Amino acid sequence: ISRFSHFSMRWKTGFMVLFSMFIITAQAQVKNISGVLNTVYSGIDSIFSVVNTNPDTVFVKDASVFAVNDTVLVMQMAGARVDRTAGLEGYIADLRNTGRYGIFIIKAVNPGQKMIVLNTSLLNYLKLAKGELGQVVRVPTFKRVNVSCTLTCEPYNPVTGTGGVLAMLVEQSLTLNANIDVSGKGFPGADPGTDE
Q: How do residues 121-179 score in pLDDT, each as one tens digit?
């Protein structure tokens, strides 16, 4: 018997993705976690296709922190084009890739070229435009996990477009003996005076 659930919360103070798969199996050791969970990440430089017409490859600032078979979250943090037309200031003219995300398995890594090839396509992704910021975050997987002290994430860095994300996969059970708190750590919103 198995049950899969997806929990995603997005709010101005942070972004949290939890995937849980509960499977009735033998008891597994409980892993205690706390502090900053996702410490391996890199900003995205560009996205393109190696295998087919849909993009499946990401060029990052530092590919050496990733390995084949790592589970990763690919997420576009910022870059929507804001309208500056009189009377429409502040309205989104083009969302571009902003807000798109997905969980993938790394198929190949080339640290010299700063390239990561994913196990499947980044559906609906477009070529990155000037001003778009995204990141690749390694996502840990736990069988049984206990949040023993406050669990959080690195604060969002508007220069690198990284941080502000807490993501993990849980196969059997997640016990909250402390808070998961990403308050004030996420993408703060756009500067109304800049666009690209």
A: 877 776 777 777 889 999 999 999 999 999 999 999 988 889 999 999 999 999 999 99
**Edge-to-edge, what's the strand order for the sheet holding 14-23?**
2-11, 14-23, 165-176, 141-152, 30-36
pLDDT in tens, 32-73: 999 999 999 988 887 776 555 667 889 999 999 999 999 999
Residue 74 region by backbone torsions, left for phi larger than 0, else alpha for psi between -120 and 50, else beta: beta
Give this prediction's pTM.
0.77
Residue 131 has φ and ψ, to the nearest 5°, of: 95, -10
Write out pLDDT tens, residues 67-125.
999 999 998 877 677 777 777 777 777 776 777 788 999 999 999 999 999 998 877 77
What are 82's strand-pairing partners?
Answer: 92
Distance of CA 155 to the CA centre of its chain: 13
Burial pattern 101-121, b for ≥16 Cβ within 10 A else e, equals: bebbebbebeeeebbbbbeeb
Among 108, 169, 103, CA closest to 136:
103
Report the DSSP beta bridge partners of residue 32.
Answer: 146
* Amino acid identity, position 161: G
Distance CA 28, CA 24 (A): 11
Q: Is 122 exposed, middle or buried (0-12, 13-18, 19+ CB in 10 A)?
A: buried
pLDDT at position 62, please?
94
